[in-house]
């Protein structure tokens, strides 16, 4: 056996550090937004930074390894004792309970679900690392999300100085895309904000300390702002408010960085191409349609296939859904040439990078095949050794393709497809075998972050 042949390294998730960027997206079911949460501002910053690592089409909760100093910097802990502060906050989170309630027609709770936020935290002393996993029970509110969920960029909330402002942002952000308003009874608002019964008992104080402060903070720091007025009174007592939610165009444009746009484009294009849409069509969609428009129509098409089971040509149905806006998305580039040009340039740049990456990966596979073929020529007179090399060649090529696709997913590139092997027919049988091998090919079924 030729010991000079390369052996692809097998990496595990635990070998890699997770990195959290402020432009990452928080995706959560609306039921989670409308739950009762008892978190301090620091705890909230930590837990939602972790949630930004979870992708809505993940199938299960994952374990993340983080640099404590990076997490501390992200959430605004700057003291010399930041290790202890972060560990103490995570300890407190492990004892905090999230309460999700289901109500009957009369508003009485009929199901009360109590969930811990963090399932496990392991500290690697001396290395400044924490291995952390969110509770598996949170999966129903964070993964495999197709409908009834809300997303926002992490930087919108990390800058807020009040947990009440944060919760007001989420409660109103849920209604931003379509309804743009929300009617809340005072009692419901107090429940969602977890205000104790003996605190801010007078509505005028509630308005001053909570609503007006949130109104000011959201207008200054986030992508939405709101106005509000009394909706209903019972006698002289205010029973409910109506909140009107608006897109904060000035902040959206100010905070829309190239990194954030690249992140969106990589996620959307890679996701589209996973369903058989060509690169050229996917790029034309990014230039014509807002990424949220694409996501909503893609979710609609996938949801229809899942529910009806009668859509034979999913990519064709996706094309029609995108063209006719079956999802009824309100997102567009209209009246915003700046945003349109940013996404258009990012799409072109991404496709160029995908092409270069694909050429590099194909060359790696070709090189490995060539080295095995040369080794087999040298042992052509030994039938048993030749058979053994043939089996090893197949195994190592499949392993390399798996490693390559896992790396592509990790870095936001679409997995290799049949079209990428055009002109390289000698490699295609190994790609076909990779697709059929149950212990390999896991990367192909994964979605990239978005």
UniProtKB/TrEMBL annotation:
Residues 26-173 form the Initiator Rep protein WH1 domain. InterPro entries: Initiator_Rep_WH1 (IPR000525), WH-like_DNA-bd_sf (IPR036388), WH_DNA-bd_sf (IPR036390). GO terms for molecular function: DNA-directed DNA polymerase activity. Pfam families: Rep3_C (PF21205), Rep3_N (PF01051). One of its GO terms (biological process) is DNA replication initiation. Belongs to the initiator RepB protein family. This is Replication initiation protein. It comes from Bacillus glycinifermentans.
């Amino acid at each position: 056996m030729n010991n000079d042949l390369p052996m692809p390294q097998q990496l595990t998730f635990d070998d890699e550090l997770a990195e959290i960027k402020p432009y990452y997206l928080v995706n959560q079911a609306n039921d989670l937004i409308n739950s009762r949460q008892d978190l301090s501002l620091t705890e909230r910053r930590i837990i939602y930074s972790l949630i930004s690592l979870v992708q809505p089409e993940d199938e299960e909760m994952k374990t993340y390894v983080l640099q404590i100093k990076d997490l501390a910097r992200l959430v605004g802990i700057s003291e010399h004792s930041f290790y202890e502060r972060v560990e103490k906050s995570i300890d407190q989170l492990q004892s905090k309970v999230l309460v999700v309630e289901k109500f009957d027609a009369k508003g009485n709770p009929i199901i009360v679900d109590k969930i811990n936020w963090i399932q496990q935290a392991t500290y690697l002393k001396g290395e400044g690392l924490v291995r952390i996993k969110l509770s598996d029970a949170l999966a129903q509110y964070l993964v495999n999300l197709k409908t009834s969920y809300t997303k926002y960029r992490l930087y919108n909330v990390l800058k807020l100085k009040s947990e009440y402002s944060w919760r007001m942002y989420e409660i109103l952000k849920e209604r931003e895309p379509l309804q743009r308003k929300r009617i809340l009874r005072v009692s419901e608002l107090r429940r969602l904000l977890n205000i104790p019964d003996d605190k801010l008992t007078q509505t005028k104080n509630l308005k001053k300390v909570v609503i007006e402060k949130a109104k000011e903070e959201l207008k200054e720091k986030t992508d939405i702002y709101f106005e509000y007025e009394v909706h209903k009174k019972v006698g002289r007592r205010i029973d409910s408010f109506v909140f009107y939610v608006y897109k904060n165009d000035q902040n959206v444009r100010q905070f829309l960085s190239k990194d954030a746009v690249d992140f969106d484009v990589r996620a959307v294009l890679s996701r589209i191409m996973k369903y058989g849409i060509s690169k050229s069509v996917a790029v034309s969609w990014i230039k014509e349609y807002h990424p949220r428009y694409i996501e909503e129509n893609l979710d609609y098409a996938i949801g229809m296939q899942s529910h009806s089971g009668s859509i034979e040509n999913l990519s064709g149905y996706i094309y029609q859904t995108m063209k006719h806006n079956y999802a009824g998305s309100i997102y567009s580039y209209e009246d915003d040439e700046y945003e349109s040009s940013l996404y258009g340039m990012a799409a072109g740049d991404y496709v160029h990078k995908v092409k270069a990456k694909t050429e590099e990966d194909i060359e790696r596979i070709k090189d490995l095949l060539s080295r095995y073929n040369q080794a087999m020529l040298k042992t052509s007179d030994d039938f048993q050794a030749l058979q053994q090399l043939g089996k090893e060649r197949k195994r190592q090529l499949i392993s390399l393709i798996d490693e390559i696709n896992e790396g592509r997913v990790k870095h936001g590139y679409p997995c290799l497809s049949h079209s990428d092997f055009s002109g390289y027919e000698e490699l295609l049988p190994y790609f076909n075998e990779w697709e059929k091998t149950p212990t390999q090919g896991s990367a192909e079924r994964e979605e990239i972050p978005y």
